[in-house]
Write a structure and sequence with these properties.
globular; disordered N terminus; five-stranded mixed sheet; 15 strands; eight-stranded mixed sheet
Amino acid sequence: MPFFENTPAYRPPVAIVTMPARKVPTLAELGIRVIENIKTSVLIQGLLAKDKVTVRDTGCGAFVPTGTLAKWVTNEISVDKLMAQDQDCAETFEGTILQGMLAAGHATDSDLTGTQIEELVRTYLEGGVAALSVEDQGIIGDLLDLALNDMVTPTVYRDAIRVWMLGDRTNASKDYNQTDGIRKKLLAKNPTADSTAGNGMYRAANIDFAALKANPAEIEDLLEDLTQNCSDELQDIDEDQKAIFLTKSLYALAKKRAQTKPTLEDPKEETKLVYDAATKTLTYDGLLIKQLKVWEQFMKADFPAASPHLALYTLPRNLIWATDLESDMTTAEFKYESKERINWWRVLFRLGSGFAYDILVAFAV
């Protein structure tokens, strides 16, 4: 039986092996609320219902207010200008399988605009799949179609997710000082472990990953802490509106715990973790658990002294992705400078992060 269903009639002198696309969750999969048309900042305002507004009726007399029905809460979320850009000389593609896509004639072969290489660059940036005609392009079309379909994750979006999560305007690195991300804002709103801040945000004890790894059953203690010691306002919201976000290693431990078979030493009778293999969903006491893959990777690489882990309990739509136009991240400008014979691309967009209600957040790092 052949290993390949479609064997090309012509075997090129080189082989192209594309790395399969790494899965990055979309904003829709994460459930994040996207707020557009923000040029500088946005005030997130809302009402929290108040308790204890009812008193005994003492009859006629002066009007004495018994309290306010609701409390206004306000969070300001600023957006910052971000840019992604790079350049290439057409000579980069000479001697490669892509050289057949260069423009004809040496006077113009440095200009990549209007060529299939520009199409390829745009696809990498914008995350779409270019409409390539295999009949017209022969083996080049076959190989590019393979590459484009494997590389489905848009470059700019993946990087924007990283900045949205881990950005810090005070960081010395240009890789992170674009805007303040979710991690910085969590630590600023509650800098003390095992406490509830004045804004109602609960922060659990710091995560001891070595202890969790030695005894995966303890992952349930962490989840219990978040769900039971968070604000009453968060506890009282229906489970189907809420979620627990875990970084990659924590998610793996929780999944392992859910899949562990009971033993005499560990009967596991009281576990609230359930993994559904059919739908590939992990839940804790009816709460959906979502995995944050990008967070841990870059924390370990770029902030080795800090905890790379996060456990976050909230409403997904309580997390805010603020921008001018979401489509800005999928719009690439591609130009050719004839004097230097350089091709460049650029993507410009605005980005900010935050929470609608601090009181509806519980986390541990």
